[in-house]
Design brief:
With about 140 residues, this protein is an all-alpha fold. It has one domain. Helices cover about 75% and strands about 0% of the residues. The chain has seven helices and no strands. Helix 5 packs antiparallel against helix 6.
Amino acid sequence: MNENSQLRNTNYPLKKVEFFLRIALGVFLLGAAFSEISHAPVVMISIRKLDYPDYLARVLGIFKIVAILILWVPLFRRWREWAYAGLTFNLLGACISFILAREWIMPDSILAPIVLIVILTSYTLYRKRFPYVTDVENNS
């Protein structure tokens, strides 16, 4: 049994961790997305303190829901890279915005780096389970 099939094996020990992180991340982001779409007061305080337009909250919420669907539905496995990248850019942008606006004590400014770490961990475990297949590996 080669290394790739071993990693895709259903008994792969980190599969449960990766699955749990993906589900937990999705549930958290789903709550955040609905808060953004509904313009919850907590979200709007953050958006306004960072001097972003109000409509940005709704746009980010919609994109988060799309990313969650891509992460959860197995049919979209090839698109997961894009979902992880989009969520990473979203949270990196949030972290940078909070730093530049000097809003370090807001709950969102503390939560954004934590969620970013969860996203990167989930992506790393996903890549360990489904590594890239290169042209060199295909020809051998």
